[in-house]
Amino acid sequence: MMRYIFACLLTITVGAFAGVAVAKATPIAGSWAGGGSVKLTSGQVEKVRCRIRYEKGSGRTVVLYVRCAHSNGTFQVSGRVVKLSKSFYSGRLYSEQYGTAGDVGISVSGNRQTVKAKSSKGTATVILTKQ
User: What percent of the chain has pLDDT over 90?
Assistant: First the structure.
């Protein structure tokens, strides 16, 4: 069950890299925290609390480090996202712990961001605020 929850969250927090012109990728730099839910393909829903730290990467990328907690424990993932527009990022997350990867889309509005993901294991949505 924890693998499914992780895979869904992983997918939430990451997106596919796109070969498009990208604006300067620093508005999300820093620490963010919040919560949301993961809905597994079985229909089960799990609440999660997450902290994400974003750091400027090379070129147009932002590196992210994620730590989430749910009723059965915690997990960590890392990844990279690319700024595709003024307020949208997309990229990939990876978990050595579970040997999994996923796609994510991140919409930013001021000090709030919505992270959405979908994978073969389910979907997830997490809403975070800048810390």
Answer: 48
Token digits of residue 79: 């990844």
What's phi and psi for 112, nearest 5 deg? -130, 145
Residue 125 has pLDDT above 60, yes or no: yes
Helices and strands, counts by H and E, the chain: 1, 8
| pLDDT confidence tier of residue 103, bands split at 50, 70 and 90 | very high
- CATH code where residue 80 lies: 2.40.128.120
Does residue 76 carry a pLDDT above 90? no
96 contacts: CB under 8 Å, gap ≥ 6: none
Residues spanned by the domain of 124? 2-130
Number of domains in the chain: 1
For 90: left if phi > 0, alpha if psi spans -120 to 50, otherwise beta; the answer is beta
